[in-house]
């Protein structure tokens, strides 16, 4: 996927970092839409001035998903610590000078979150958070939108998105049939819900064909 950011999007990003004050940009979208790719492209475009805090760091641990009976739906809205995510964004919003805030990340190779893996420094003007449910209007998720200075909905051709998801699942250990089944029964169910939230975004970021 092409990771070049078009000028119309770069202009908005420049405005977010121009003041030097803390801004939080949310990148929402369905699984496989390219949110992480876009976050990395923005990070590369603003070296030393941005940090990425992914929502995926708040996946519940596999042992807890098993206890709750939700392991087969991993990635659904209730398989994350949404309250913890909101609490972290609130801390980042109110970060004091000299304070370091640590955020978790998610390692696909082990399918587990890792705590305190991402340092967020107080002098970084742009915090990018990306994830499926940033614009969802229920439960703790409903508090996320008000903590974002700007929210983008990341979109891509649905066929390409599904192909990317299948390839991702194969790359991290599933066989082709299992990967396709997971995409259709889990990822695409979540994608349908996430699509309903796009109207809450400030803009729709479309990857070039």
UniProtKB/TrEMBL annotation:
Pfam families: PRK (PF00485). Residues 24-206 form the Phosphoribulokinase/uridine kinase domain. Signal peptide: none annotated. The keyword Transmembrane helix does not apply. GO terms for molecular function: ATP binding; kinase activity. SUPFAM superfamilies: P-loop containing nucleoside triphosphate hydrolases. The keyword Transferase applies. InterPro entries: P-loop_NTPase, PRK/URK. Keywords: Kinase, Transferase. This is Pantothenate kinase. It comes from Caballeronia sordidicola (Burkholderia sordidicola).
């Amino acid at each position: 996927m092409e990771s070049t950011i078009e000028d119309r999007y770069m202009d908005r990003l420049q405005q977010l970092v121009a003041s030097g004050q803390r801004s939080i940009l949310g990148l929402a979208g369905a699984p496989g839409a390219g949110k992480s790719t876009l976050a990395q492209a923005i990070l590369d475009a603003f070296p030393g001035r941005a940090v990425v805090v992914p929502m995926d760091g708040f996946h519940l641990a596999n042992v807890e998903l098993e206890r709750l009976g939700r392991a087969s739906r991993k990635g659904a809205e209730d398989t994350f610590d949404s309250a913890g995510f909101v609490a972290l964004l609130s801390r980042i919003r109110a970060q004091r000078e000299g304070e370091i805030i640590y955020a978790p990340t998610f390692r696909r190779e082990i399918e587990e979150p890792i705590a305190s893996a991402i340092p967020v420094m107080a002098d970084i003007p742009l915090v990018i958070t990306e994830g499926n449910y940033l614009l969802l209007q229920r439960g703790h998720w409903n508090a996320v939108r008000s903590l974002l200075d700007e929210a983008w909905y990341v979109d891509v051709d649905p066929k390409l998105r599904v192909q990317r998801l299948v390839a991702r699942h194969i790359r991290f250990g599933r066989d082709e049939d299992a990967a396709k089944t997971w995409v259709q029964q889990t990822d695409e169910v979540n994608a349908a819900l996430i699509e309903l939230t796009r109207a809450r975004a400030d803009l729709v970021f479309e990857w070039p064909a």
